[in-house]
Backbone:
């Protein structure tokens, strides 16, 4: 009998019932709730006359629809200009009141993007099963938790039963060995991984990220990596719990305290794969080989190092691939053979659950300090991931650095990551974005997204096109 | 949930790989707090030339005549043929809701994204994974024959094509059972309420820090 992977351990410890047909009932410790994927779940509960199984396991926060401009934000829910957004945020508020669920509402200091707020408050902890009606729930796996996105029917299922019916996934290890070069970040590492295995490479797997590069990352960096596991097709990404994890959790609002803290830490020390654990798939990258990454197309796997040139569809002998390159180039308004550094930008967005934590903002501020946003850039904005991040950044004077350089400093929320609020790209605009998806129309109808690290986005804001931040 | 036994219907193509959930139903339509009414906005950015907004009168929008679902030969299709990694991206259940609302019951592809695949079953939609070459053959058959239809028999796990050919497909037993009988998942899980309670009290004893009250 071989050892267990981290995923095996988390799975086994939450297994309520193993059924003859191969499905399993898995206990869920924490459900995070936001306004977009929950209204129909609450409605379902009401229609069937059910109550939440364990109210305290749920934490709600509106993020997708909240305005990030101060003047629109100060009015609270009533101040949201778009009536459809307002109704959705109000509905979350009403549902949480009705069912007794704790909500950090729109003007709560702790409000922010659900995946930033969970770890920040200690509401997501090592060893937990965490779900949310949002695919980037994989973020929380960075703490050594089993965390993944679910659909609305499952949100209702977890509310009503505290469990999910699941099929066990396969185990994949993605190892990044060695060291990252200066100027190369967690975001570049995860984009390089997706470039390597493709957007479906992790389908059916839970991915554990390991290797020296991953161990060397800060917790913020680890969250960036796990955040994008879903972009490689894996519902769950995770990283072993170590001293850094424990140090990060210590003292947070909902972290265990006193005697209980020591018991928890003792349990958390086992949250790693055994040396002889079996993985169904192993992928290895070398940290030194990774350069700053830029996506050029309409899928996160369409990614290149900053010194690369755009692909030529004619060079592909696979018809499906050729068509998808052609379609992506046409949508993006780019030509084959063009250097990445020639791509001109209209907007810059620094934010989202991938890169809106304090470390991300520090990295961006360092690049723009004492400089000015290029005249050709119509809008460059920095959107902190939560009220707590915002306060910390302001304490460090980062807001000043950004505004002095000509970037806008906003209120926390999902913002231009997905254009459900008033922050959007115009038709045909190119955006250097620190978010996680470059799908057609993701940031606004006809908008053209290039995914990059915060430092790369900041440098692009100053120059108006992509530059190699290693030479900054 | 709707029961799924045998379904006969017309096929339509979504002939590209990596169709993401943003493409299936763009985010501006996710603001609805209802479960229905997403059909007219299925593949909105491909179906219409203008930018879709909730609450529009769809009959007045400029239609993209090149898009298959807008063409007469694919009207009333209920079986969607598509390519690798269909449904990738966000976990939004609005994607299967939109497909369902438009009238699709079956989606056939070489592969699906995990969350989307799972969400289909919660809504009485049957996603079928077939080998790449078989999907390719079905595409050809459909393109060559106006009004091409397939019959999907869930109980026997076969797809019958017009010339009497049968293609077998795999589906796991639990999902098949629930779909076939149109079972309510939650009700089913609550039959195990005692096991859940037992587990919960053991787990709380072992890891009391996971059970603190939020405030
Ligand atoms: S920041 Fe973007 S990816 Fe993250 S939860 Fe919000 S919309 Fe989703």
Residues:
């Amino acid at each position: 009998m071989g050892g267990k992977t981290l995923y095996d351990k988390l799975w086994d410890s939450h297994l309520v019932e193993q059924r003859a047909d191969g499905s399993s009932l898995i206990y869920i410790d924490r459900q995070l709730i936001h306004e977009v994927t929950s209204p129909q779940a609450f409605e379902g509960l009401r229609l069937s006359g059910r109550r939440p199984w364990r109210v305290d396991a749920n934490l709600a926060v509106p993020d997708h629809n909240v305005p990030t401009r101060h003047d629109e934000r100060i009015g609270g829910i009533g101040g949201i200009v778009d009536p459809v957004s307002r109704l959705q945020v109000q509905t979350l508020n009403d549902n949480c009141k009705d069912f007794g669920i704790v909500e950090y509402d729109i003007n709560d200091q702790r409000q922010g993007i659900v995946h930033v707020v969970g770890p920040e408050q200690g509401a997501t902890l090592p060893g937990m099963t965490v779900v949310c009606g949002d695919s980037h729930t994989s973020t929380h796996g960075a703490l050594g938790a089993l965390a993944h996105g679910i659909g609305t029917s499952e949100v209702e299922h977890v509310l009503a039963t505290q469990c999910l019916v699941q099929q066990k996934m396969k185990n994949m290890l993605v190892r990044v060995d060695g060291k990252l070069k200066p100027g190369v970040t967690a975001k570049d590492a995860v984009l390089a991984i997706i470039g390597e295995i493709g957007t479906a490479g992790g389908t059916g797997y839970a991915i554990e990220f390991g290797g020296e590069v991953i161990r060397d990352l800060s917790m913020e960096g680890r969250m960036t990596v796990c955040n994008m596991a879903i972009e490689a097709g894996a519902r769950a990404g995770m990283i072993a719990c170590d001293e850094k994890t424990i140090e990060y959790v210590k003292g947070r609002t909902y972290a265990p305290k006193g005697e209980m803290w020591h018991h928890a830490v003792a349990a958390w020390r086992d949250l790693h794969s055994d040396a002889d654990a079996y993985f169904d798939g192993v992928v290895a990258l070398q940290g030194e080989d990774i350069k700053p990454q830029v996506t050029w197309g309409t899928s996160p796997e369409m990614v290149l190092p900053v010194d690369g040139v755009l692909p030529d569809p004619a060079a592909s002998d696979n018809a499906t691939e050729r068509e998808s390159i052609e379609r992506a180039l046409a949508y993006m308004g780019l030509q084959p053979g063009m250097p990445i550094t020639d791509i001109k930008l209209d907007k810059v967005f620094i934010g989202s659950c991938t890169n809106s934590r304090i470390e991300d903002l520090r990295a961006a501020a360092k690049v723009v300090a004492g400089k000015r946003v290029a005249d050709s850039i119509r809008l460059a904005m920095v959107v902190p991931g939560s009220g707590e991040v915002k306060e910390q950044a302001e304490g460090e004077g980062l807001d000043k650095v950004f505004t002095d350089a000509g970037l806008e400093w906003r209120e926390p929320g999902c913002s231009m990551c997905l254009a459900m609020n008033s922050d959007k790209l115009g038709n045909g605009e190119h955006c250097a974005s620190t978010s996680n998806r470059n799908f057609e129309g993701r940031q606004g109808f006809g908008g053209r997204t290039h995914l990059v690290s915060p430092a790369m986005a900041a440098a692009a804001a100053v120059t108006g096109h992509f530059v190699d931040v290693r030479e900054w | 949930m709707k029961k799924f036994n045998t379904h006969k219907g017309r096929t339509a193509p979504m002939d590209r790989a990596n169709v993401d959930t943003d493409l299936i139903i763009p985010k501006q339509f996710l603001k609805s707090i209802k479960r229905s009414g997403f059909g007219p906005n299925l593949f909105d950015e491909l179906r219409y030339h203008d930018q879709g907004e909730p609450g529009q009168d769809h009959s007045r929008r400029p239609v993209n005549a090149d898009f298959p679902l807008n063409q007469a030969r694919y009207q009333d299709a209920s079986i969607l043929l598509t390519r690798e990694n269909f449904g990738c991206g966000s976990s939004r259940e609005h994607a299967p809701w939109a497909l369902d609302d438009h009238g699709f019951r079956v989606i056939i592809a070489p592969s699906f994204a995990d969350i989307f695949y799972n969400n289909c079953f919660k809504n009485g939609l049957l996603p079928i994974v077939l080998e790449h070459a078989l999907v390719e053959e079905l595409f050809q058959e459909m393109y060559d024959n106006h009004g091409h239809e397939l019959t999907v028999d869930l109980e026997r796990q076969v797809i019958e094509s017009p010339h009497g050919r049968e293609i077998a497909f795999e589906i796991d037993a639990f999902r098949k059972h629930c779909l076939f009988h149109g079972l309510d998942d939650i009700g089913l899980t609550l039959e195990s309420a005692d096991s859940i309670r037992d587990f919960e009290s053991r787990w709380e004893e072992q890891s009391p820090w996971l059970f603190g009250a939020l405030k």
Notes: Chain B has eight helices and seven strands.
